[in-house]
């Protein structure tokens, strides 16, 4: 009987404040969709870091005869065979180095033509103008500075470059976008909480006569509060359900179908469905607990029980 009464009161409360209930549902849905999207964005950045950092190389570019004429780092002339051999020996002795690949001038020229064949400069370059290099795969990509310290300024070395620096700029941009999404989510969450508190207050005021009678007949505080808390939880759960649907539909149409980014951007290792599905229970739990707690604390002020 008590459960039936609470359920009936939930329906009455939701119908009485239909406009505000709708606003609560929409704001909860949007804030939790942004919350879930931010979690997935963090997973995506972590996945991309793991994928790309494992592929980055440190490159030691060697001086050629043209560098000897124009580059202060190569003032002592082009790299000699003895210098190349010594650089290779020293690299292989370093514990941070996983493997070393040599790229000759002809190979460098070939790779340049493959990547920038349509460039106006491509026709004027010759193989002897390209730089030989050693491409080093590190055990830990964070240890680039060890290589830079050991070989920068050495005779025959023009420069030491770390591809990780290029990727860091990309990941900094992605993290900035993610923080922006979290900021918008926080504002939407505050709006949702204020709407929930206001909805509970209006509902409690409109039913102050009923609650007064319930107090007089000895109803417990929890029994009086339960319908209001349940109303907020139900509205939040509907919003959380919409947020989950939004994430699933968004993942399906942007990555798998529709925009089909998984086939158009093959260089990006997108997060899988397992990452999406593991976020849904968290979103649903938040959608119930957040409104219920907001309603509970609002009732302590607006409903004297």
From TrEMBL:
Keywords: Cell cycle, Cell division, Cell membrane, Membrane, Transmembrane, Transmembrane helix. The keyword Transmembrane applies. It is a multi-pass membrane protein. It is found in: Cell membrane. Residues 184-301 form the ABC3 transporter permease C-terminal domain. Residues 56-160 form the FtsX extracellular domain. The chain crosses the membrane at residues 21-41, 180-200, 221-249, 280-299. It comes from the Bacteria. GO terms for biological process: cell division. One of its GO terms (cellular component) is plasma membrane. Forms a membrane-associated complex with FtsE. Part of the ABC transporter FtsEX involved in cellular division. Belongs to the ABC-4 integral membrane protein family. FtsX subfamily. This is Cell division protein FtsX. It comes from Streptomyces dangxiongensis.
